[in-house]
Amino acid sequence: MAYGKTWIFVYNLVQFGGWSWIFLELCLCSFQFLEEKCFAGGLAGSTEALFQPAKLRCAAYVLVGWWAPPPLRAFLGFANSNWQRFEFQVLRSTLKPLLVFQTLTLLELVHTVLGWVRASLATTALQICSRLFVLWFIVASFASKYEECINTGYLALLSAWSATEVVRYAYFTVLSYGNMASRGLLSVHEVVPRWLTWLRYSLFLVLYPIGVSAEIWLVLGALPWIRETNFLRVRMPNTFNFAFDFSIFCAIALLGYIPGLPFLYGHMLKQRKRHLAAARRHATITDSPAQTTERPAHRAKLD
Amino acid sequence: MSLSIQSRSGRELLRLSLREPGAPQTVDDLQQLLWLQGPRVKPLRQRLTLPTGVASAPKARSLLEAGHKLEEYGIRVDAGAQDFVVHFKDLGPQVSWRGVFLAEYLGPLVLFPIVFTLQLGGLDFSYAWHRALPQQRAALVAWTLHFAKRELETLFVHRFSNATMPWRNLVKNCAYYWGFATYVAYFVCHPRYTPVASHIQFWIGVLCFGIGELGNLVCHWRLRQLRPAGTRLRQIPYGFLFELVSCPNYTFEVLAWVGFNLMTQTIAGILFMLVGTLQMMIWAQAKHRQYLKEFGTLYPRSRKRMFPFIW
């Protein structure tokens, strides 16, 4: 079990590093774009004037460019060639690390099966598989058709996923470090600072809908190309009497989002309520001077 | 001294005195009282448990089962001036096992011929039959016989205890069987279906299927003999393949599906077989454990779960 704890810590640390890299790459690309296109190279030298309204407007413009759904983006004028080049640059520098670190999350299923991490196998599998499906079978497979279909949601997907994962793995890194160092004697709220708990259980409120809508846009955008290129298509007749049409599979997967989305969102809302309430309870207990020596009787589970 | 029935969140639903003449003696009494005076939920929907961490219960499990006395769970009048707490949960609308079985098997029984007709003959069954390859006809007959047998067994052979399950299971099970029936039938009855190349393979498949179905029927018949009508008696089965495994009915079931797949050779059918086998392995594991727990050293040690000599 000691090996397990150490391994979990190392895994979380590696994932935290990987996702930070991806997120920083995205931010640096965006920064560079802002500097070149909006400030004509004048941003780096003039930090004292960083908060000018015009510059803030430009930053907001980039953020809208990350997150706005495709129809709105076309309306707002993100279809210009400068922006397209920027998006392609982001894709080129983030796709490989994104594939590597997202595929690594398959290990979390192994951790859950081995009992090293306490989580529901079904929920974890659903989350990981839906991400890997979009990433490998849509984004990676149609990256060469970037302008035709992947630009509909790649930035939103990347920013939502990487921001969520940076915070999530920061949380788990701290948690698993505390767990490892204290040999499981400390409760989660004794290990993780309250602000990190708050971030980990609040960011999804915004980022999850963004990420999921990006996934849906990507699949919808790729559908015509899947049909046109006969991607992953097997037709009868063959000796194994098997046929497969990836576009139909995608359509069924999209239908699966209808019950899946409220289910997962509700699941996370419930978790948020539970964990934040526990963190608040812990904070009030340890803050009141009369009870500082007492540990809370029911320690929250380290999960 | 009183007995407090609470919801999981600690809200009191009913408080009973244990000293009064009408005090409940058995779990069934308690369930009746809850039905009449408490939250008005029928006994079958009730799930009663002792709160965790109560050491007074001699039974390891904290679930209060119908047919037992309250004393067995440590709820007795002479246990000092103690107050007892029992947790109550409404399991929701229930359906009988027999009903679920009938509904879930009806789907495949009806859907396979429908898909057969639609795929090969539009709306004309006799034309579809005429157009179909002999292997497709054999598959239709085998599949229909299999599920007709299951329906008849549900009606006339299986002896169910009175247990029920939540109605959501009905939806889940039906989705599984009806979905897979359509999926398998789509490929087996496809106009561009390729029959198996070797006749030997086909006939071995038919043989396996036949042996599987007959063996399965024999197992079910023997299990019926073990439980006299109207009882909940459980005994150790002997004889036949029961000497080797705890659940030979599943062994034969798998054999029948191996036969079906040898006859038809579709990925969909193999998938259906694999998922079904996995589920049966889970059930066999549970059944095997239950036998060992209930009969202890009386239960033959050498018996495997489902696959003779292997597992």
TrEMBL record, chain A:
Region of interest: Disordered: 283-303
Pathway as given in its UniProt record: Lipid metabolism; fatty acid biosynthesis
Biased composition regions of type Polar residues, renumbered to the chain: 285-294
TM region(s), chain numbering: 6-24, 129-146, 198-226, 246-265
Catalytic activity reported: a very-long-chain (3R)-3-hydroxyacyl-CoA = a very-long-chain (2E)-enoyl-CoA + H2O
A GO molecular-function annotation: very-long-chain (3R)-3-hydroxyacyl-CoA dehydratase activity
Enzyme class: lyase
GO biological process: fatty acid elongation; sphingolipid biosynthetic process; very long-chain fatty acid biosynthetic process
Domain of life: Eukaryota
Keywords: Fatty acid biosynthesis, Fatty acid metabolism, Lipid biosynthesis, Lipid metabolism, Lyase, Membrane, Transmembrane, Transmembrane helix
Identification of the protein by name: very-long-chain (3R)-3-hydroxyacyl-CoA dehydratase
Organism: Cyanidioschyzon merolae (strain NIES-3377 / 10D)
Automatic annotation (TrEMBL), chain B:
Transmembrane segments: 105-127, 175-194, 200-219, 240-260, 266-284
Intracellular or extracellular location(s): Membrane
First-listed, main subcellular location of the protein, grouped into a coarse class: membrane
Gene3D superfamilies in UniProt: 1.20.120.1630
GO cellular component: membrane
Superkingdom in the source lineage: Eukaryota
Assigned keywords, A-Z: Lipid biosynthesis, Lipid metabolism, Membrane, Oxidoreductase, Transmembrane, Transmembrane helix
Topological relation to the membrane, as annotated: Multi-pass membrane protein
Pfam families reported for this sequence: Steroid_dh (PF02544)
Domain 3-oxo-5-alpha-steroid 4-dehydrogenase C-terminal: 164-311
Gene Ontology terms, MF aspect: oxidoreductase activity, acting on the CH-CH group of donors
GO BP term, pick one: very long-chain fatty acid biosynthetic process
Membership in a protein family: Belongs to the steroid 5-alpha reductase family.
Record protein name field: Similar to 3-oxo-5-alpha-steroid 4-dehydrogenase
Lineage, highest ranks first: Eukaryota, Rhodophyta, Bangiophyceae, Cyanidiales, Cyanidiaceae
